[in-house]
Amino acid sequence: MTDLNARVGEVTERIVKRSAAARRPYLDRIDEAVAKRPARKRLGCANFAHGFAACAPGDKQALREGDGPNLAIVTAYNDMLSAHQPFDRFPDLIKQAARAVGGSAQVAGGVPAMCDGVTQGEAGMELSLFSRDVIALATAVALSHDMFDAAVYLGVCDKIVPGLLIGALSFGHLPAVFLPAGPMPSGLANDEKSKIRQLYAEGKATRVDLLEAESKAYHGPGTCTFYGTANTNQMLMEIMGLHLPGASFVNPNTPLRDALTMLGVKRALEMTALGNAFTPIGHVVDERAVVNGVVGLHATGGSTNHTIHLIAMAAAAGIALRWEDFADLAEVTPLLTRIYPNGKADVNHFQAAGGMGLLIRELNDAGLVHGEARTVWGERLADYVVEPHLDESGEIGWRPAPDASGDVAVLRGAADPFQPTGGLRVLEGPLGRAVIKTSAVAPDRHVIEAPARVFHSQEELHAAFRAGELDRDFVAVVRFQGPKAIGMPELHKLMPPLGVLQDRGHRVALVTDGRLSGASGKVPSAIHVTPEAAAGGAIGKIRNGDVVRLDAPAGRLDVIIDADVWARRGHAETDLARSHVGMGRELFAAFRGQVGAADEGAAIFSAV
Fold first, then answer.
1. Domain Dihydroxy-acid/6-phosphogluconate dehydratase C-terminal, which positions (predicted)?
2. What is the DSSP string of 134-145?
């Protein structure tokens, strides 16, 4: 057995000590909620009758008179979004699997699932981050009927999985399994898609050309195949022990996907307090699981959104995760994958090269993850170094993960990484704190020093680009984009013009209190700047022409200006009223008023 890396151990112990005051009461609370017999039996007769009134006759009989487990299904199904459309079939599969082992299942509730790809650059995107907390609240409402002994969660994309997990952890006494839908088959190559986007930004491709390319890339049911937040979610759920082994990247509507779904149901029902394998989710998600998630994020060059979401998810379990933990773990975690936007491959190529089983084995053998961390499958994460397959009878079997990567351009071992440190860095300086994803940025772009050009919206930058004002070295400072200002939308509309300018040979970078997520690419970008401009952050003091220095290797974000001048500098203001109405934004005023800072999880719930 490989010894745990000293830094991983130090960070884990630091988190344990920091979290003690919140974690112990959390565990006490969920332990008190555990019922050794179905909790629904305590309901009044009228309450109970309401709970099973619409069930099929057999399920009604089982719920009314039996003591078998009842499973909650919390679903993010809708048929507009490709990632969630496959969940249409899941409730019937889940109920069938539950009945086969003497249990029952009910759709406890639905949660909203919005797509950042649809709302990108539109007003609706300003609800995106807040939708995570809405999903957490909706999950709690779904489970509040107290009819259930365990739960399965159906969700894939950006805010949906973090919201579901936050809600699940508020019912931490219930066992839980996350059931993914899987990625769509590969379509148009990601680098080809990116090329058309840049040509369109330059006016060298038409909207017809762009739509044709996008339609070939996003062409059927399943998750988008690039390694953005949605697929980072799936990696996290597996490396944190909340998926079955190898479940993350099996394509939708295939026999193996259906078999994994039904086996996940069986496992969820085995873990209830009614049996001998009780495994509440609040005990699975501990400090070790959180550290494993951060290491997985670094090793795969995952979505920067999780420097926000992981903090909020951990806090829901009474665990205090901080950006400095991300920074320290990044220094010892090698980058083992190249998946678009950090390379040309997609997640189907990653799966074919060895997938999660090989990745977890490499990290475990290198002592970079807690192999003994508890999971929903077996006793420890070290058991996840396998991959599922269907045997001749159609049953799931398990075989060891490949000994070596099938494609070292996509997935490598820890002894031969793409780079020795992870793809995320934390920046600090007089402008506050920020995050940068370096795994897709050329090394000669890891340090940028140039005059600032300040914008208060994506549209302002696009207008300047079209007017030919940006053909030079500069740092784009796009502010008043944080959670308190306008809900912290993703700013991917900025990437095509900045990419064009970088390709022309200019040294450009982005500094913003907004988000870019897992699809952020080749332009160096200091994002999630906190404190944000709307909270009086120093990013609001920058003026056009101030020299800004972004230094990823040194972890610095500086403004090169006389200290006395900077100290006397006033803070900019802007009118955000138009971003607070329309497209439902007026309903989220309380969220904007309550939300915490990015480095605290940007949540409306109390930080730990």
1. 410-602
2. HHHHHHHHHHTT
Print the domain residue range for 479. 425-579
Q: How many domains does the chain have?
A: 2
598 in any annotated domain = no
Note the Cα 372 to chain centre separation in Å. Answer: 23
The tens digit of pLDDT for each residue in 443-482 reads 999 999 999 999 999 999 999 999 999 999 999 999 999 9
**pLDDT tens readout for residues 476-532:** 999 999 999 999 999 988 988 999 999 999 999 999 999 987 556 789 999 999 999
Tokens of 143: 């489970």
pLDDT tier at 275, thresholds 50, 70, 90: confident
Q: The whole model's pTM is what?
A: 0.94
Instruction: Tell me the binding residues.
Output: 157, 224
In a domain, 409, yes or no: no
The total of other beta-carbon atoms located within 10 Å of residue 282's CB is 27
Which residues, 6 or more positions from 392, have their beta carbon under 8 angstroms from its beta carbon? none
Classify each residue of 203-242 as buried b or exposed e, where b means 16 or more C-beta atoms within 10 Å of its C-beta: eebeeeebeebbeebbeebbbbbbbbbbbbbbbbbbbbbb
Peptide bond into 180 cis (omega under 30): no
The Cα 102–Cα 400 span in angstroms is 31
Is 445 in a helix, a strand, or coil?
helix
* Residues facing residue 398 across a β-bridge: 388
Q: How many Cα atoms are found within 13 Å in the side-chain-facing hemisphere of 203? A: 5
Examine the domain organization and report whether 464 and 363 are in the same domain.
Answer: no
Q: In which residue are the tokens 């860095």 written? A: 425
CA dist., res. 312 & res. 560, Å (int): 34
* Cβ atoms of 428 and 556 closer than 8 Å: yes
Nearest to 519 by CA among 303, 370, 349: 303
- Rounded Cα distance, 547 and 71, in Å: 58
**Considering the domain boundaries, does residue 239 fall inside one?**
yes
pLDDT (tens digit per residue) in 296-338? 999 999 999 999 999 999 999 999 999 999 999 999 999 999 9
Residues flagged as binding site for [4Fe-4S] cluster = 157, 224
Question: Are both 123 and 164 inside the same structural domain?
Answer: yes
